[in-house]
Every structure is written in C-alpha cells, then in structure tokens.
Design brief:
The complex is a heterodimer of chains A (about 140) and B (about 100). With about 140 residues, chain A is α+β, with helices and mostly antiparallel strands. Chain A contains four helices and six strands; from the N terminus they run E-H-H-E-E-E-E-E-H-H. A six-stranded antiparallel sheet of chain A has the order 1-6-5-4-3-2, with helices on one face. In chain A, a hairpin with a 2-residue loop joins strand 5 and strand 6. Helices cover about 60% and strands about 15% of the residues of chain B. Chain B has a three-stranded antiparallel sheet with strand order 1-3-2. The chains are: A alpha+beta (about 140), B alpha+beta (about 100). At the A-B interface, strand 1, helix 1, helix 2, strand 6 and helix 3 of A face helix 1, helix 2 and helix 5 of B.
C-alpha cells in the first residue's frame, strides 16, 4: 500500500451472499453507506450517491460500475469533491462469515480539482490540523 | 511532504495567518490589508511575498496596484483524503454490520 490508496479488511459475521445484497441493493446500501436510488449492476452503468449538500460541495458522488462478479467482487468508480478514485470490494467466505476487503485507489497529490475553495479549506484546517502542526513546528 | 511544510511554515506567523484568513474572504490590495492590521506596509508586503511563495495567495496587477486573493487550491496539499476516507469507511462498515444483523437471511 502506498500513500495514494487505502486498503481495509473487515470480518463480518454473515455469509458472502448476504453481504453482497447489502453492497448492491440500493435500498440496503442507502441504509449503511449513502443514499442511492439508481445503483444497478451493469458494467458501465452510472449511478450516484447523495448526502446533504455542504456550502462547497453538492453532496453527490458520481459512480460507474466497472465489474460485478456475484458474490465475490464488485468494483465502481467513486468521484466526489477532491477525489477521483476506484472502489474494489472483495468478498471471501471464512468460517465465521465473510472477509470483506475494500480497496480505494487513485488518490493523487497533484489532483487538479481545487478543494472547495480557500475559505472552506481554511475553516477546516484552522480547527483541526493547523494548531497541532504549528505547535510541532514551534 | 515538502509542500505541506512550506504551507505550514508560511502560516506559522500569526500575522501571516491573519492576512491569509482575511484574503479567503475576498481580494484586497496592500493598502487595505495594512489598514486592517496593526503592522507596517513593508511588513504586509513581506508577508504577502511569503504567502505567494507558498502558493497560498495569488496576485493580480491592476494598473499600478496589486491585489491579492487566497489561491483556491492553496490548502489542498494539507487535505489528507486517504485518512478522511479511512475514517469514513470504518464508520460505514460498522453500520453495514449492524444492518446485516437486522436483515433476514
């Protein structure tokens, strides 16, 4: 794993077929991930996730199905404020249920998309990282 | 990351930070900035040069005057999207587990 991707693994106490449904049925996905009403498992199919808009982001994630192999592998693009990435879900049966691996790749330090404007960035930074890092630099 | 260091160093000075914050609200010239803060005009110009060098502000020449505004992507190197998404997904998967528990077979 490098700085431009994330890999997470989870052990879920349910069978892969059930986890697959929760990952792919829009009504179920909307309950744990984000609201979607148009997710469909056809390669090339575009769909969206939505959350409440923020001042600098309309709250929409644009996706496109890349690959779907029930019940073991699902991949789609994930494009939102500041990111243009690919999500890959891998489901592996284990004794206790399912090992669910999530990979999100394509984070780039040189991304052209501006981060919501300087003002939003400043408000977030000032409250979070900046005081801590400035204390370290002093 | 060298980019992050440059930004943090530029913002380490409280006056520079205040100037940058003011410029996130809109474009201003050196005279207006000097009027806002209790520091001399040469000092303001120096701070603007440091902020410019860290790509945090962008100058605009209009005749003999120069106006500055906060660069839209200036703070972008500070945003650790990977870390944000890691926290996001961990929370989401907790909710997935809860949903699975509630679902019928």
């Amino acid at each position: 794993m490098n700085d431009n991707e994330l890999v997470l693994e989870f052990e879920l106490s349910h069978a892969p077929e059930k986890v697959w449904r929760a990952l792919t049925d829009p009504a179920l996905v909307s309950r744990w991930l984000m609201n979607t009403d148009d997710m469909q498992l056809t390669v090339g199919q575009k769909f969206k996730f939505r959350r409440e808009p923020l001042p600098q982001w309309d709250g929409v994630v644009n996706c496109e199905i890349l690959e779907a192999r029930e019940p073991e592998f699902l991949s789609y693009t994930w494009q939102a404020l500041g990111v243009d990435t690919i999500i890959r879900w891998t489901l592996e049966p284990i004794a206790t249920g399912t090992r669910l691996k999530l990979e999100q790749t394509g984070f780039r330090p040189d991304q052209k998309q501006a981060f919501g404007g300087a003002r939003m960035g400043w408000k977030q930074m000032a409250g979070e990282q900046l005081p801590r890092v400035l204390a370290e630099l002093a | 990351m060298p980019e992050q260091d440059a930004i943090f160093r530029a913002l380490a000075d409280p006056s520079r930070r205040a100037i940058f914050e003011r410029l996130t609200e809109g474009e201003l010239g050196v005279k207006e900035l000097t009027a806002c803060f209790a520091i001399s005009q040469p000092a303001v110009s120096q701070h603007l040069a440091a902020l410019s060098k860290a790509a945090l502000v962008v100058p605009r020449r209009a005749g003999r005057r120069t106006f500055y505004r906060a660069a839209p992507g200036g703070l972008r190197p500070l945003v650790d999207w990977v870390a944000r998404y890691r926290a996001f997904w961990v929370e989401r998967i907790d909710m997935l587990q809860q949903l699975l528990d509630e679902m019928d077979e």
